Amino acid sequence: MDSAFHFSPRKPDTVAAYESCRELAASSYENFNVGSRFIRRGLRPHFYAIYAFCRLVDDLGDEVDENRLELLDRWEEELKLCYRGSSQIVWFQALEQTIDEFNIPPEPFLRLIEANRRDQHTTRHETFDSLVEYCTYSATPVGHLVLYLFGRFSEQAADKSDHTCIALQLANFWQDIRRDFHKGRIYIPLSDMTEFGVEPSTIENGEATREFRDLMRFEVERTRELFRKGYGLLDHLERDFRLEFAAITSGGLAVLDAIERLNYDTLKARPTVSSARKLGIMARIIARNAVGLSPISDSAFESAAGQSSPVSSRRKSV
Fold this sequence. Notes:
By secondary structure, the chain is mainly α. Helix content is about 60%, strand content about 0%. The chain folds into two domains: about 10-105, Farnesyl Diphosphate Synthase; about 120-305, Farnesyl Diphosphate Synthase (Orthogonal Bundle), CATH 1.10.600.10. The chain contains 14 helices and no strands. The protein has helices at about 15-25, 45-60, 70-85, 90-100, 105-120, 130-140, 140-150, 155-175, 175-180, 190-195, 200-205, 210-230, 240-260, 275-290. Helix 6 (about 130-140) crosses helix 8.
């Protein structure tokens, strides 16, 4: 992949720029629908603009076959131009209006760029705490951006959002273990791998040993707990954002369920959430909300098997 698309020139007007962002979102697989119908129509273009920034900066850090650090520096320069109203790139053309309308500070965007810079030289994380610290650059800024779009940013809301965003990032890591390994990265904490007796060669060979499955079960349980902690954000949200937040959380939980259905073997097949399952998630959320229930049931946060990790009693802190 080359970077020409990422630096596509401005459109004749902002409406066309937002449409480019929408088309990018529509063409991409995600574990949840970006800018779903739970979000009021007037907000959706702004979701697409935020998504375009996040998706494309990740591409620059992950997929392009050029000097990635130079491209990330260029992306940051375009962000600075965007805040001055002078970027010539289509994605920033749309983002400029979103930033102005919702008074979004540059820090969340800058942290996302920095996460991708880190990816160029940090390919392992020794501990879970180190991985979580990385997620404060790669994941939690996205939640802060969404809170700004809904006019709900506060330190208390951000704290709850951080739990959910870290959980979403971890679910994606567990989903893409083999893919990330082929990019030279291992996101499973090395201390966890050591404790469970899993070597990098296990991932390289695509061999889901009993030890690997036990490790994945543990990581999935820990991630479910983060989703549970983050769900308290629901109490801070208005109706349309409540449903969208429930859909996003449910999408992350669905990935964990898919991993469980594979008996925690994420090496031979990538666990995904089908379109039919996404529709089912949305239908359940609507139905529960219509009768005054919480959009996500308590049981959705639990393992379908109801089994605990072999070491969960010793190491389940998140």
